[in-house]
UniProtKB/TrEMBL annotation:
Matching Gene3D superfamilies: alpha/beta hydrolase
Protein name stated in the entry: AB hydrolase-1 domain-containing protein
Pfam families: Abhydrolase_6
Signal peptide boundaries: none
Domain AB hydrolase-1: 5-248
SUPFAM superfamilies referenced in this protein's UniProt entry, alphabetically: alpha/beta-Hydrolases (SSF53474)
InterPro entries on file: AB_hydrolase_1, AB_hydrolase_fold
């Protein structure tokens, strides 16, 4: 049986975002970097086609089987939308799931039941998403260049889309419709999944100190739901730290790898 590490990428990136981290997680198992539906090397998603996080999770489960990793333990390393996919996949793995490393999973809809407990910034952002029919429910606007610009600038800073190299913009334009589907998932019923994991699964939750308040609120919610989780703040970084701040991200991922390895070694000795 092969132990494997699923490395799940975020919206508007590709599976290559985790390539620099493969050696960091290798002590846990074989690194696997499947692409979400509609991302290279697959064809872009056709406008009008609906895909959910559950569809992406099912596709990844098939990838495990086809690649010969349908047995053995699975560790999940995921960023942003990849975190939602990983949490949706977790029940399909059952006892094979060994650990989770989640960098700012975007389960925004899960915050609605606790909206009264959020700080003003997080509440305002959640309300803005919920009450904006154009961004989440306008299939003509969704995935357009104007929509993409709004998405990119939210997670980075105003003007980030315009400053992006033209070649990178061209790639992201081909992903626009799938990006829109993913944002709908994190703000819809899909984001209520993943809140019923066994409390024995080691979890590391990571967020950047400069990330939007709504992302910090998701981390806080998960930490409340899973009090055994390790919560780590990367000072001076934002939501895209796995891409923009590789060294500190690699450091916390290495800590997680060592942590899970120790727990696994102890369980083997006690069995």
């Amino acid at each position: 049986m092969h132990a494997s590490v699923l490395m799940l990428h975020s919206t508007a990136t590709t599976a290559d975002m985790w390539a620099p981290y493969e050696s960091t997680v290798a002590p846990l198992g074989v690194p696997l970097r499947p692409a979400h539906i509609g991302y290279p090397p697959d064809r872009p998603l056709m406008r009008g086609q609906v895909v959910t996080a559950a569809d992406d999770a099912t596709a990844i489960a098939r990838h495990l089987a086809v690649s010969g990793h349908d047995a053995g333990t699975v560790d999940i390393v995921a960023h942003s939308y990849g975190g939602l996919v990983g949490l949706t996949l977790a029940p399909l793995l059952g006892t094979r799931l060994r650990s989770l490393f989640l960098f700012e999973p975007t389960l925004f809809a899960s915050l609605r039941p606790v909206i009264d407990t959020l700080d003003d910034e997080a509440r305002a952002t959640l309300d803005a998403f919920s009450n904006d029919p154009q961004f989440l429910r306008d299939d003509q606007f969704g995935g357009s260049e104007a929509w993409i610009e709004r998405f990119i600038d939210f997670w980075n800073r105003p003007g980030s889309w315009q400053r992006m190299p033209p070649a990178q913009q061209a790639v992201i334009r081909t992903l626009g419709w799938k990006m829109y589907q993913e944002v709908r998932s994190v703000n819809g019923p899909d984001a209520l999944e993943g809140l019923g994991l066994p409390h024995t699964v080691p979890i590391t939750l990571v967020y950047g100190s400069r990330t939007p308040a709504i992302a910090r609120a998701v981390i806080a919610l998960l930490a409340t739901r899973y009090p055994h989780a390790r919560v780590i703040t990367l000072e001076g970084t934002g939501h895209m730290a796995p891409v923009t701040h590789m060294e500190p991200t690699r450091d916390v991922l290495a800590e997680h790898t060592a942590y899970v390895s120790r727990i696994h070694a102890l369980s083997l000795r006690s069995s």
